[in-house]
């Protein structure tokens, strides 16, 4: 499991979430630990490393925050793995 800090899209508090880094692509709903609103999180892992994270507001999808690593780094990591 990997702990990652992100900003809640409802109350903008910094919250921590635990992700299973052995699963490449996953989507699930987790409640904010501060305001208890449901956040749809979509972490994407590559070789156990978080390369993309999308957080959506379940109500109206108006607030979306995304983290993406640059593709160059991802390519280098793949090459190192072989
Ligand atoms: Zn919140």
List keywords for this structure.
82 residues, four-stranded antiparallel sheet, two-stranded antiparallel sheet, 1 helix, 13% helix, binds zinc ion
Walk me through the structure:
The protein is mostly beta strands and 82 residues long. The chain has one domain. Helix content is 13%, strand content 48%. The chain is built from one helix and six strands; from the N terminus they run ββββββα. The relative contact order is 0.20. The structure holds zinc ion.
What topology emerges from the helices and strands here?
Layout: E1 2-7, E2 14-19, E3 28-31, E4 38-46, E5 49-57, E6 64-68, H1 71-81
Antiparallel strand pairs: 1-2, 3-4, 4-5, 5-6
Bound molecules: zinc ion (ZN).
Give me a quick take on this structure.
The protein is mainly beta and 82 residues long. Helices cover 13% and strands 48% of the residues.
Radius of gyration computed on alpha carbons:
14 Å
Shape: globular
Query: What would you call the structural class?
Result: mainly beta
Order of strands, main sheet, comes to 3-4-5-6
Q: In percent, how helical is the residue content?
A: 10-25%
Biggest beta sheet summary: 4 strands, antiparallel
Ranges where pLDDT stays below 50 over 5 or more residues in a row are: none
The residue-averaged pLDDT reads 80
């Amino acid at each position: 499991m990997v702990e990652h800090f992100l900003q809640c899209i409802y109350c903008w508090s910094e919250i921590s979430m635990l992700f299973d880094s052995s699963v490449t692509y996953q989507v699930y709903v987790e409640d904010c630990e501060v305001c208890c609103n449901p956040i749809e999180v979509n972490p994407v892992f590559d070789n156990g490393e978080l390369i993309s994270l999308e957080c959506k507001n379940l109500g109206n999808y108006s607030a979306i925050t995304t983290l993406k690593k640059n593709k160059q780094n991802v390519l280098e990591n793949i090459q190192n793995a072989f």
